[in-house]
Amino acid sequence: MPYFNWNDSINLLSKLTFKKATNAALVWSSYQLSKLTKKPIQWGYPISISFEPTTSCNLRCPECPSGLRSFTRPTGMLEKSFFEKTIDDIHQELLYLIFYFQGEPYLNPQFLDMVKYAHQKGIYTATSTNAHYLTEEKAKQTVESGLDRLIISIDGTTQDVYQQYRVGGKLDKVIQGARNIVKWKKELKSKTPFVFFQFLVVQPNEHQIEEIKALGKEIGVDQVRFKTAQVYNYEEDPHNLIPTIDKYSRYRTNKKGEREVKSGLQNHCWKLWHANVITWDGIVVPCCFDKDAMHHLGNLQSQSFREIWKNENYKQFRQELMSSRKNIDICSNCSEGLTVWED
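RESULT FIELD:
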């Protein structure tokens, strides 16, 4: 069955207001109409956005620009005052806020203060962490912040396997961080955050799928989920990351014997209508696949979010996507539309 949790879903729906529901209906309708007319029609404002707390990271994962230190854009920290100004502008329509793009969110000392601010505005908040900084104190503060969803990346059940992808990481810190969160949820009698292990399935760890389920159950996280890995050079896969289990791979082999993305890259994308990404320094980019922020659609340091969302840059990008999505660099390795199912 698909990943679904009643408590988490009810919590998300509790954030829904008439204005947010109306906005979501407008966005969905404009997307469907755009597909029919093959012209970019955009009504409403984003249902979901991702805000980048920082580009800094303590790990060196082989398929991550942050881990590889390969960014051409500057490294920095999201400032709380800038974040609050943006949220004040769009919170009435916004349902879902992801505190993640690149980097490790907990490295930003103001991260949990920003979570608390968004929570007080009635927005569902989520983040993804490698869990190395979830000390007793930070775990308690996380629960108290009102964070609704906490994704803990854990890609192995033994140190030797875990470190093959999470280079520089310590599995014992991840496990202890997860225990701390579970402990403080119980101590504070809180239903949030909804905590799940995210297991990025790659060839070195695919034999531990059943073990991570057992570990998640033993620790007491709410769920264990499996994610397909993006491999930049998937044609050659030089690090042998693409799993042999087809279910957990973003790629397939075509009749010519060549690897290709399973999603098929049709000339439309729901993400470009309902969501976007904001870098730590205010650059608005189309989605999380633009990791180096090469497609600037606007700058929140000089424009309002509402101006950017419907500007000519956005219209042009949506039109290009609807004309020939496969020719857009960030779309060529996209997994949008692919779903991994639970065993």
